[in-house]
Structure formats: C-alpha cells, structure tokens
Write a structure and sequence with these properties.
- This protein is an alpha/beta fold.
- The protein has a domain at 29-155 and 200-211 and 222-247: Decaprenyl diphosphate synthase-like (Undecaprenyl pyrophosphate synthetase, 3-Layer(aba) Sandwich), CATH 3.40.1180.10.
- It contains 7 helices and 8 strands, in the order E-E-E-H-H-E-H-E-H-E-H-H-E-E-H.
- The chain has helices at 38-44, 49-70, 89-113, 128-140, 157-173, 184-188, 236-248, and strands spanning 5-10, 16-22, 30-34, 74-81, 115-120, 147-155, 201-204, 223-226.
- The strands form 2 sheets. A 6-stranded parallel beta sheet has the order 5-6-4-3-7-8, sandwiched between helices. It has a two-stranded antiparallel ribbon with strand order 1-2.
- Helix 1 (38-44) crosses helix 2, helix 2 packs parallel to helix 3 and helix 3 (89-113) runs parallel beside helix 4.
- The longest helix is centred in the middle third of the chain and has 25 residues, at 89-113.
- It starts with a strand and ends in a 12-residue tail after the last helix.
- The structure holds 3-methylbut-3-enyl trihydrogen diphosphate (2 copies) and magnesium ion.
- The site of one 3-methylbut-3-enyl trihydrogen diphosphate has 11 residues, from strand 4.
- It comes from Candidatus Methylacidiphilum infernorum.
- It is an enzyme of class 2 (transferase).
- One of its GO terms (molecular function) is transferase activity.
C-alpha cells in the first residue's frame, strides 16, 4: 500500500496549481540549503544587494513553512559563512541587523509552529544584539520537536572539523580517549552538527556548483540538487520539485543496487 500523502502544490500566487504526490517514505529526514544568489537577484533589478537579502529572508520563511508541512525533521540553512566576514562592512552590518529583526518578528511563530531553532558556527563572532536575540529564540523554542531549524551563522566546515580535532586531541592527551577509539562515530560526535543526522539532500541555488565550506564531513553521501534560480526566487514550488527529484534518486552508499 502506497503511503503517499496527497499534497497540494501551491504556486507563488498562493493558489493550488496541481497536485503532486510526495511519498512520505521518500521525504528526506534532513535537508541542507546553500541559499545563494541574493546579490545577483538584486543587481538584475537595479536594486541594492541588501534588497536581495531582504527578499531572501522571505524565501527562507516560505521554505521553512513547506519543510514543516511535508514532514522534514531537520532543515539546515547556510545563512552566513566565516568567509562572508570579508564582505564590505555596510553589507555585513545591514545583514546582521536584518537577521536580528527577522528573528524578533518571527519568534512567536516559531514557538507556535513547533520549530526548534539552533545554530552552528561561531556565535560569539556575531554582534551582541543578534547573539541576544538568538539566545532568546533558541531558549523559547528548545522543547519544540516538529522541525529542527539550524542556522549556520559565521559557520565554516573546515573550522568545525579543526575544532573537533582539537577537542579529540585534548581528550587523548588527558587519557580520556584512546587512539584506537577514534572512529567516524566518535569524530561526528565532536562536530557542531552531532545532534542531527547527515543531510540526505543538499540544495544550492544560483547556479554555483560548489560547497563553499559547508558540511564537508557530513555530506559524504548526500544527494545534491543544483538550480540556476537565485535564492529569493526559490519558493515552495521549486522546493517541492527538488524533493520530487530527490525521491527518484537511488542511494547506494557504496553497495550494489537492490533489485525488486
Ligand atoms: C547569499 O547570497 C547570501 C549570503 C552569502 C549572505 P549572496 O550575497 O552570496 O549573493 P550573490 O552570490 O552575490 O549573488
Ligand atoms: C555561500 O555563498 C555562503 C552562503 C550562502 C551563506 P557564497 O556566495 O559566500 O559562496 P561563494 O563565495 O560563491 O563560494
Ligand atoms: Mg554568493
């Protein structure tokens, strides 16, 4: 018996356009997204880059809502990388203020919808106001469990891996960990992403086909979905299309395909 959930697919106009059946067995447990192309979206419209970031937050909201509806349990969004600090000061400042404002406006909704907010990355790098807001929202949503929404903020995967290495070496020097105990499981448990499974699906928008220092260890067997769409235009419908594509992929994890 097919356990497919009939799922009304809505267009950007909010109306039901056509019905797509997303089989609940093929819904990824964890989706990670590199939300790229905000600047180019704005430039194409002769707008300031920051307007692209503003619209990007609306896209993020729509994608989170869709993730919740289809039953994804973990959604990880690459919001700001450690390397993004190299951008012009005014862009960074505007971005940080926008993140803080967006979180404060949406905090209650996160609480009500059962979304748990967590972050990965160097939170202490962030402006004090944003840190305070994150502390508040994470605390208020900590007992939620419908969807774990992870924001990668001042995140870099190489740094995360190095931090794990340092922690393990420290424990080894103190005699708390034996060299022979160091395996993939132990290593993973020292990464900032230890609380969630590895991503099943990783989406990158804007046509770039690279990881840009995102989830390098975790994405060893992740399925990739690249699209030319700039992030502000990546809405519910295309997210559902990405999920539909994922559902058709055959994952083998190094094994031989199982024949029906
Ligand atoms: C992604 O969009 C958002 C952040 C990295 C903060 P970009 O700002 O990188 O947009 P493009 O790639 O310049 O178009
Ligand atoms: C990756 O995008 C980081 C985020 C989306 C937050 P970038 O725009 O910073 O990546 P590159 O510079 O194109 O590799
Ligand atoms: Mg970019």
């Amino acid at each position: 018996m097919n356990s497919a959930r009939g799922y009304e697919q809505q267009g950007n106009n909010g109306g039901a356009t056509h019905c797509s059946l997303l089989d609940s067995r093929n819904i990824p447990e964890h989706v990670a997204i590199i939300m790229d192309g905000n600047g180019r979206w704005a430039e194409k419209r002769n707008l300031a880059r920051i307007e692209g970031h503003r619209e990007g937050l609306n896209a993020a909201k729509e994608v989170v809502q869709t993730a919740l509806e289809v039953g994804i349990h973990y959604l990880t969004l690459y919001v700001f990388s450690v390397d993004n600090w190299k951008r012009p000061y005014y862009e960074i400042k505007a971005l940080m203020e926008m993140f803080e404002d967006f979180l404060s406006k949406n905090e209650e909704e996160l609480v009500e919808k059962g979304i748990k907010l967590v972050t990965i990355g160097r939170r202490t790098d962030l402006p004090k106001g944003l840190q305070k807001q994150l502390l508040s929202t994470c605390k208020k949503t900590e007992s939620n469990f419908k969807l774990v929404l992870t924001l990668a903020l001042s995140y870099g995967s190489r740094l995360d891996i190095l931090d794990a290495v340092k922690e393990i070496v420290k424990k080894a020097l103190l005699g708390q960990v034996k060299i022979s105990d160091i395996n993939e499981e132990l290593f993973k448990s020292h990464l900032s992403t230890s609380f969630c499974p590895d991503p099943d699906l990783l989406i990158r928008t804007s046509g770039e086909m690279r990881l840009s220092n995102f989830l390098l260890w975790e994405s060893s067997y992740t399925e990739f979905y690249f699209t030319n769409t700039y992030w502000p235009d990546f809405r519910r419908q295309e997210f559902l299309e990405a999920l539909g594509t994922f559902a058709k992929r055959q994952r083998r994890f190094g094994q031989v395909a199982v024949k029906n």
